[in-house]
Write a structure and sequence with these properties.
Length: 241
């Protein structure tokens, strides 16, 4: 486990974007596992900037997103499909047919999870997985208590996750109660894992996840066992370690 201290959110985003950029330069047809949320937004901004300057080419990459709300369509502004297009895909040359996000409108859970796992397998697994961390220690939507050995599955969201994500919705009641998520087994099989964390509200969970015991109660703690895991945090998020 490698921990990199960044001065602030911009510094964290730039450092993480540098690692992603190096990955794409070293292996132009790599498979990038991507995340949504506030933590990676700055990374996408930086990558778009470098793309506009001609420094990075995304034409051969495949992207596999971590998760999607069950019940939301691609058109819904709160869907992760929409988020990724709005914040990244629409601004760079990723090929639309190489973009993968779980289909929130597929109500057949078994079918959707098998479809997504098949895609990940068919692409040869993930070269670099980008992650944020929830205040309860979740990664993707693997909430506390999630089994470490799962592939893609459907989860009931924790109250703290619904509370944290309501900022993207008009009202709390609009936050879907379920989501499809890549499982921890798949995340752990990624060849490289890169997590970004910023802000005071992440300080306690960062300490618990990476300096406490490895336990399903803190899903991110399993990353202590990953052979190539890097955490980049700003001063606030790393203030307790
Ligand atoms: C997003 C995801 C989540 C977030 C986590 C942190 O695709 O899988 O695990 O990474 O909820 O969210 P932010 O970055 O908004 O604090």
């Amino acid at each position: 486990m490698k921990i990199i201290r960044a001065k602030d959110y911009n510094d964290m985003s730039r450092k993480a974007a540098n690692i992603i950029s190096a990955q794409v330069i070293m292996k132009p047809n790599c498979v990038l596992g991507l995340a949504t949320g506030g933590s990676p937004e700055g990374i996408y901004k930086q990558l778009i900037d470098w793309y506009n300057k001609g420094d990075i080419d995304f034409s051969e990459i495949t992207t596999i997103n971590l998760d999607e709300y069950k019940g939301l369509s691609r058109e819904s502004e709160q869907s992760y499909w929409y988020f990724m297009h709005h914040h990244f895909f629409d601004h760079v040359n990723v090929r639309p047919q190489k973009i993968n996000v779980p289909d929130g409108t597929n109500m057949n859970v078994e079918e959707e999870c098998a479809r997504y796992d098949h895609i990940i397998q068919a692409k040869g697994g993930i070269d670099l997985q980008l992650l944020g961390i929830g205040v309860d220690g979740h990664i993707g939507f693997n909430e506390p208590g999630a089994a470490f050995e799962l592939g893609t599955h459907c989860v009931d969201l924790d109250e703290s996750t619904i509370e944290a994500n309501k900022r993207y919705f008009e009202k709390k009641e609009d936050v879907p109660r379920q989501a499809y998520t890549m499982g921890i087994k798949t995340i752990m099989q990624a060849r490289k894992v890169l997590m970004v964390a910023n802000g005071k509200n992440k300080a306690d969970i960062i300490k618990e996840a990476f300096f406490g015991p490895v336990t399903p109660q803190v899903p991110a703690s399993i990353l202590q066992m990953h052979p190539d895991f890097t955490l980049i945090g700003d001063e606030e998020a790393l203030s307790k370690i």
